[in-house]
Description:
Layout: H1 2-37, E1 41-46, H2 51-63, E2 68-73, H3 78-84, E3 90-95, H4 96-106, E4 111-119, E5 122-124, E6 139-143, H5 146-158, E7 163-164, E8 177-179, E9 185-189, E10 203-206, H6 208-214, E11 224-225, E12 234-239, H7 247-258, H8 260-270, E13 274-276
Parallel strand pairs: 1-2, 1-3, 6-9, 6-10
Antiparallel strand pairs: 3-12, 4-12, 4-13, 5-10, 5-11, 7-8
Helix pairs in contact: 2-7, 2-8
Amino acid sequence: MHRAVRAEGRRSFIQRVSAIAAVAVSLATGALSAHADTPTLKVGIATTPQTPALQEAAREAKAQGVDVKIIEFTDWNTPNAALANKDIDVNYFQHTPFLENAEKQGGYKFVAIAPGTIMKIGLYSKKVKRFEDLKDGATVAIANDPVNGGRGLLLLQRAGLIKLKPGVDYRATTLDIVSNPKHLKIVQLEASQLARSLDDVDLAQGYPSFIKLAGTADPNSALLFDGVENKAFALQFVVRPDSVNDPRIRKFIEIYQHSPAVRKELDKAFGNLYAVAW
């Protein structure tokens, strides 16, 4: 009788252990299956020294269960087209004024869901050390898009080289120039190509990140920088409206904004030429 009871007890114990093991296996299998079914998050950027920081965020995201692929584009038009076409899930390369202009020009409907860094721009030259040394008729290159070109014109005005109509902002165009005492010849180039124009022009609007990438000058050598206090020029994480609450994107942004390792990569790439906007 006692042996039968003991045997029955052993069977009950084994059954309980087996049931617990089955639940554990089921949970593990479900977790693996859920992870396997999660699509890769595709983040589009314009080729820039921002890449190592984003790659670090991607590594940390993978460790937390989100697979991220950083996709680089060589111009400033394709990342928005790719986002609209659903080739990528989010892009990170543009500030709000640029986005607003892109939406107007391309008919896009996007949402900026979180800020990133604010990058300084400067006026660079390999021909002169002071603005006073620019010759009459010198050639100056600025960005050819309506937003960044206006930002360049404002910087030329701060340098005392031109005067614009009173009250104009970053939407200024060359038609808003009311005084140009040195008769500067202002040429407009794609913003990402300005860094490579330094051998051909006397002065150029420049982005330290692209200056560094091109290796055409010391990114810190601008004759004049604009500040990083205007958060309108902060780079934005931009998505389609249906992706605003995508938890993969939110997780990636959280890592980018708060990871010490990501900040270390940003410091390494830009030193004091950037600020965070969150």
